[in-house]
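Notebook entry, structure prediction.
Reason for the run: the old model in the group folder had no record of what sequence produced it. Starting over properly, with the input documented here first.
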Amino acid sequence: MKTLTGKHINLRALELADLTFLYTIENDESYWSVSNTQKPFSKFLLQQYLENAHQDIYQAKQLRLLIEESKTTNSVGLIDLFDYEPKHRRAGIGILISPNNENKGYASEALEILINYAFTHLDLHQIHANITEDNIKSIALFEKFGFKKIGLKKDWIFINGKFKNELLYQLIND
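New structure, fully documented this time:
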């Protein structure tokens, strides 16, 4: 069995052919509040990013993978490990499923695959996720895989003229 292959999806490294999908996602303002983005990305800048995406997690301190359907190889989302700290054996995790691919089980399968990869191949001790308090779907998803709420950041995200609280979730590999 391949490590980054599931029953319905594969996780794979980003390629230049993914430029259009990445451009669409990165320039969708509805995601900016959770990705700390405040301006659009040009295709040129994203192409440069993809050309340098060959760096491994030890160099880049992050791992960004495309989520694609196994049968069709259609791009359905992205999943990331970020803020990788090898000494402390931890990383943050984030996931995004494009709106037309939500509620199909892709997020659950991708999260399960990446958790397994992080603990077995990267030897991480813990993974953490930051989720706004009103993101009920993400909270349910991460709790399904054993993530525990360990903190609350009050008024952490400012969007549409209002502050939102952000929850900190953690999964420790015992």
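Summary: Residues 106-120 form the longest helix (15 residues).
The old model has been moved to the deprecated folder.
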